[in-house]
Amino acid sequence: MKKLLMATAAAALTAGTAYAGGHAKEVKLGVLFGFTGPIESLAPAMGDGAELAMEEVTKSGKLLDSATVTPVRADTGCIDNGLAVANGEKLVAEGVNGIIGGDCSGVTGAILQNVAIPNGMVMISPSATSPGLSTMEDNGLFFRTSPSDAREGQVMAEILKERGINSIALTYTNNDYGKGLADAIQSSFEEVGGEVTIVTAHEDGKGDYSAEVGALASAGGDVLVVAGYLDQGGLGIIQGALDSGAFETFGLPGGMIGDSLPANVGADLDGSFGQIAGSDSKGAEIFAEMAKERGFDGTSAYASESYDAAALFLLAMQAANSTNPADYVGKILEVANAPGEPINPGELGKALEILAAGGDIDYQGATGVELIGPGESAGSYREIEVKDGKNETLRFR
Amino acid sequence: MDLLNALVALTNFVLVPGLAYGSQLALGALGVTLIYGILRFSNFAHGDTMAFGAMVTILFTWLFQSMGLSAGPLPTALLALPFGILGTIALALFTDKTVYRFYRQQKAKPVIFVMVSLGVMFMMNGIVRFIIGPSDQRFTDGERFVISARTFKKLTGLQEGLAIKTTEALTVVTAVIVVAVLFWFLNKTRTGKSMRAYSDNEDLALLSGINPERVVMYTWMIVAALATIAGVLYGLDKSFKPFTYFQLLLPIFASAIVGGLGNPIGAIAGGFIIAFSEVTITYAWKKVLTYGLPDSLAPDGLVQLLSTDYKFAVSFAILIVVLLFKPTGLFKGKAV
Question: How far is B135 from chain A (nearest CA, A)?
Answer without folding.
Answer: 6
